[in-house]
Structure formats: C-alpha cells, structure tokens
Design goal:
346 residues, OB fold (Dihydrolipoamide Acetyltransferase, E2P), Rossmann fold, 3 domains, 5-stranded antiparallel β-sheet, 20% strand
C-alpha cells in the first residue's frame, strides 16, 4: 500500500490556516473519487473510505477537495475551502451545476494541430479556467502531423493574455518531460478536452500507467474516447493528475468573470465607447467598431464574446427563475402541511 505525506498530496500553509483549534485531532485527506454513497480519499495514514454526515450529499464533493475526517467513524467532518473549483452546466437542458475538479493548479486544455483546433471552444475552456482561478495551458497534440506547429501556438496564445500554448507529440518519448513544470511537487494538473485528442496518451505518459488507448480513426484524425471517470493519479514528477472524460459540449456556468478575463481587450475598448450602453452595432463613437474598422480587432472574436455574454446572462436569469420557483413550491408545501395539521387538531 502506497503512503503519501500531506505535502505529497498538496497540503500547504493555506490549508493549515483554515483549521480550528478543536480540529487538531482530525485527519486531513484529499478526495480521490466520489460515488453516490461514499467518498474515497488519500491521507498520510493511507486511503480512506468515508461517508458524509447528516443530510449532506456526496454530490457536494469532487475530486481534489480537501476534507477533515473522523477516521474511527469513517466520517467527513468538514470540507475545507477550495483554492480553485472547475464547474460547468450539466449536459442536457437542465440548469444544474456539474462539479469537475477542485484545487487544480493548472488546467491543461488539450486539442490538436488539425481539424479539432476550434477557437470558440478554446475560448470557452479559457473562460472556465479563469472563472475557476486556474492557470490555463493549451496543449496542442499531434504536432508531428502538421507543417507549422508554432502557427497553432501563436493562434492559441492570441485568444487570451492568460493563455500559454505548447505544441507537442503526445506519443513522443519526452512528452511527459515537456509537462514536468505543471505536474511536479504536489501540484495538480487537470486535463480537459474533446475525446480522441490524446488526453489518455498524455495521462499514461505522466503517470507511467498502461491504460488501453484506442487507435486513430481514419477520416477525422481523432482517437477513440477511453477515459470514463475522474480521479487523482500520482505523476512521475511528484504531482497529481486529474484526467476527465471527453466533453462533447462545454456549457459555462457563472462565468462572467472568466469571460471578462479572456476578452479583457474587448471589455477595455467598450469602456471607451461614447455611450455606456453601446451595443457595438451602429452607435456613433463606438470604440469597438472603430477597432474592427482599423484592423486592430477581429469582428468574429467580438461576435463570440457577445454570444458568451448573452449565454451567461440567460443562464443567470434561468437560475434566478428556478430558485424563485423552488422557493414558491417550498412555501406552498409548508402551507399545505400547516392546513393538514390544523384539520387534524379539529
């Protein structure tokens, strides 16, 4: 059985500062995997199987969380505050928030130097990283299959002042070494991206694992999806990797700050428009339209920005309405219960 120190797991002074005096006897642990009924976690005492207390659900926890545990009872006593939290809107038409990973230092956004390179999708991932507080790293695989990998790097880094990009061959002998800086000494790297872009190949290289990877499909240059769940895996450099299932669509959740960070150039220009409520359509004195006309700003980038802003506003409004409906249903249920109690007394 492999044992780790708390420092190995990423424990730091930030976590120690959260402890209350009466919690000195609790066991710190880092959540590895979450099921419907249990949480598995890693601690300095070895792996733990834990349950939540009271009405709390395991759905409130996610891979990467730090918790305090009562080992004797196998119970989570408290979840510590997260440094970062990656979320998205759940698939389908619902408004639920899906937790992806917590306490991630770097978000590795994996795409490839071929038809999978999609600017709009990359901007969504960058906004998600910025909202979570993670450092974004765009990993461009299949660099051996294109003529100019550096062109892909330039295009990726131009999407946001926050973005760093790295073109590489995920199957190369030095693939893991190229990611050492983001996956060593207790740091946590999470990989996200579409299916078939090489995430599992990179994960295997970083962890030394031998998980099965599928071949590349002819016609679309995509591998087949192999990752089906997320969990913490130790990297060969002493850090931690969270590999996530491929996402067919990324729907952002509470991403206003992240969108603003990725499109900071457009927001800065908008502040100088003549009218505060400028729609950047036909108003006089529009700084955004002037920048487009001068060739200093891509019109398509502005359209993508406005689409994300509208989507975020619609999500916010829909969540507000959903909460209002829930409160109304709760009020009606309380009234019904009160009427029933009154009738029973009679």
């Amino acid at each position: 059985m492999t044992h780790y120190t708390l420092a190995d797991l990423g424990w730091s002074a930030r976590h120690i500062a959260q402890l209350e005096p009466e919690e000195t006897g609790a066991t710190p642990a880092r959540v590895n995997k979450v099921s419907r009924t249990r949480i598995t976690a890693l601690s300095a005492n070895g792996p733990l199987r834990l349950v939540t207390q009271g009405d709390e659900s395991t759905g409130d926890y996610v891979t990467g969380d730090w918790v305090l545990a009562d080992v004797d009872q196998g119970l989570v006593t408290r979840r510590l505050e997260r440094d970062t939290l990656l979320t998205r809107r759940a698939a389908g038409s619902g408004m639920e928030t899906q937790l992806i990973a917590a306490n991630v230092d770097t978000l590795g956004i994996v795409t490839s130097c071929n038809a999978d390179f999609n600017v709009a999708r990359l901007e969504r991932y960058l906004a998600m990283a910025a909202s979570a507080g993670c450092l974004p790293l765009i990993i461009l695989t299949k660099s051996d299959m294109c003529d100019d990998p550096r062109d892909y790097e330039r295009r990726a880094e131009a999407l946001s002042p926050l973005a760093n990009a790295l073109a590489m061959d995920a199957t190369a002998d030095d693939a893991a070494e190229q990611l050492r800086a983001w996956s060593k000494d207790g740091q946590t790297l999470a990989l996200v991206g579409s299916s078939g872009v090489g995430k599992t190949t990179l994960a295997n290289a970083l962890t030394g694992a031998e998980e099965a990877t599928a071949g590349v499909r002819e016609g679309d240059a995509k591998g087949r999806h192999t990752t089906t769940s997320r969990g913490l895996s130790r990297t060969i450099f002493g850090g931690w990797l969270i590999d996530t299932p491929g996402m067919r669509a990324l729907r952002l959740n509470d991403a206003a700050d992240g969108i603003g960070a990725v499109f900071a150039d457009i927001e800065a220009l908008a502040e100088t428009c003549k009218f505060r409520d400028c729609s950047h359509e036909a108003e006089p004195g529009c700084a955004v339209k002037a920048a487009i006309a001068a060739g200093n700003l891509d019109a398509d980038r502005v359209k993508r920005f406005e689409k994300l802003v509208r989507e975020d506003e619609m999500n916010h409004e829909a969540r507000h309405q959903a909460r209002a409906r829930e409160k109304e249903l709760q009020r009606m249920a309380r009234n019904t219960q009160a009427v029933s109690r009154h009738k029973r007394r009679k």
